[in-house]
Amino acid sequence: MTNGWIDIKNTDMMLIMRGNPAENHPCGFKWPIEAKRQRNAKMIVVDPRFTRTAATADMFLQIRAGADIAFLGGLIRYALENQRVAREYLVNYTNAPFLVKEGFKLPEDGLYSGFDENTKTYDRSSWNYEGAAGGSSPASIQGEGPVPSHDGGSVTGGVAATLVFALHTGNGGADYGNP
Beta strand pairing status for 42-46 and 59-61? Predict the structure, then answer.
């Protein structure tokens, strides 16, 4: 969650994944309910379990335990392929306009580009990004992500997929410069 609970009352749509705020945060959960009542906001709950939060949802998507990263990957792909991204937000408030420098390669042998076999160190200059003017570094992204899932799923993958989806849809929150 990138904003405080009270700000949820201003939303038109909320996606709740791997959590049960109706039981775990009953005082804070009044704000999603207020958004539903006052703004006709839609609540989508994605979870393997049917919880009290899911019972109040407009749409409950029951996925297999551990499939949340694949689900978010599908959402990201759909958003990109169907031009359902906040392009202005991406360009102005994220590192999306930066390109990976020429010469960067994904690991074939488990080692990223720039590895020197003799010194056993990396030359990190090939890890930089090129901005519109070239040579710029992207801004760092910080966020509060999901907690470890009950099925032992990947926390890092879940956080990364959640942040990518949130940033592509322009939901970075006030702390990230979202106007």
Answer: parallel
* Counted domains in the chain: 3
> Quick check: 101 and 138 in contact, CB under 8 A?
no
Range of 81's domain?
Answer: 65-96+152-179
pLDDT band at 151 (very low <50, low <70, confident <90, very high): very low
Alpha-carbon distances, residue 52 vs 2, 22, 49, 154 (angstroms): 23, 6, 10, 25
How far does CA 146 lie from the centroid of its chain? 10
> Do 168 and 85 meet the contact criterion of CB atoms below 8 Å apart?
yes
Cβ proximity of 145 and 162 under 8 Å = yes
Cα 85 to Cα 10: distance, rounded to the nearest angstrom: 20
Same domain membership, residue 51 and residue 8: yes
Residues 83 and 157 both lie in one domain: yes
Q: What is the pTM of this model?
A: 0.60
Q: pLDDT of 6-49, one tens digit each?
A: 888 888 888 888 889 999 999 999 999 999 999 999 999 999 99
Q: Mark 88-113 as b/e (b = at least 16 C-beta within 10 Å).
A: ebbeebbebebeeeeeeeeeeeeeeb
Closest by CA to 102, choosing from 80, 135, 140, 139, is: 135
DSSP 147: P
